[in-house]
Amino acid sequence: MSNARSVHRAAGSWAYPVGMSLIFLVAFGARLVPVLRGGGLHAIGNYDDGVYYAAAMGLAHGLMPYRDFLLLHPPGVVLALAPFAGLAQVLGEPDAMAVARLCWMALGGVNAVLCGLVLRPLGRLAALVTGLMYAVIFGAIYVEQTVSLEPPATTVTLAALVITRALGDSVGTSTRHYVSAGLLLGLSPLMKIWGVITVLVVVVWLAYRRGVRNGMTVLLSAMGSCAVLCLPFFVSAPASMWQMVVVDQVGRRRGEYEAGNRIDGILGLSLWTGEPRLHLLATGAAAALLVAALAVCIIRPQLRLLAALLISHGVVLAVSPMWFRHYAGFTAAPLVLVLGGALATLLQWAGKVRSRLPGAALAAGTAVAVLISALPLTQLRLGRSFPGRSVAGVLAGVDGCVVTDVPMTLIQADRLRRNLDLGCRYEVDLGGASYHLDAGPDMELPRGQNDVWQ
Q1: Which of 200, 278, 290, 354 has the fewest C-beta atoms under 10 angstroms from its C-beta?
Q2: Going by C-beta distance under 8 Å and a sequence separation of 6 or more, which residues neighbour residue 143?
């Protein structure tokens, strides 16, 4: 009998790390395969990825964002991509960009595992299913299949929750854990200013649950890491940095609200609700499930942090003046954590039954449902192919500057460094200039009709 128990414990100890390893692989594959089936690793992406890489290349050549070229985001992504900009000296720009994309896909796998680790204090089965949910939710897949702002911000937030055991007790959590968590959290607004909301929610929660001293430790550490990394850029161009990162973002013109697209994006249903699929049925069912899960997390004091993160992030997306598909990556982790928290509660209730069968059956059924919900991924193709080598061959005979409105075309043609060496005017975000220029009455007009931008 004792031998049987030992075997069972050994199997249990191996099952969790093996399951997490499989979740990482599923997440990585869910991001890689649609790209390979679409435009490939050398594709034209979603425009923004080229902007971020071009900004990092400018920094690698001694140019400072805000002072020497326009950048409408904090400098975190520039610092994160700087090593890949340097890698272009060895691999060339197209392959260095491909490596960066692969690393962001791997970051998606890390985020899926971290989602599971956040839920680990509530049970292994719930943790594994939560990781699987993140691995296949479309909002996360879309932002993590290429270089975007949201994935690193998600990573540092989840890592901070894991370090502080935010959903567990504080046993073994010392001051150094809170300092480490704060230093990581400070990198979230460094990637995207929306991260300020994330920091405040986590700090208030820790102050409430663990004491004001621990909450303030996290807050001061977060402010320190963010300030130190922003300082060189702010010193070089304080007025321009404030204008681009804060004023231009807040003052963006309002586009069409697209409430349906926002709701479907936040719920991770964008692949299910397009024509001719059943929009109302899928959206209604998913919304009802999420509301029920949110209610469970609000009722349980231990899980209210998850509810607060989802509600606050959802409000940010609701009031945002514009909607882009990648915005759904901002709520992907809070959403699956809320669903995972509700599942953990159900499993705990099922665990009160003497037999282990109800809990295992519930977890298995949920995992199957998650995989069924991911079926549209089998038809997904991401990115547009681009004949970078052919373009590079044509440009080989061009001695002067080459201008483009999509920086990824220069990256795939291996031309960014050449333009920098020639001292060409460096524009990394021509589209973003429409949010920055003082166009007066034309500010609200589309770019094609905006005379100042033209």
Answers
A1: 354
A2: 149, 150, 151, 326, 328, 329, 332
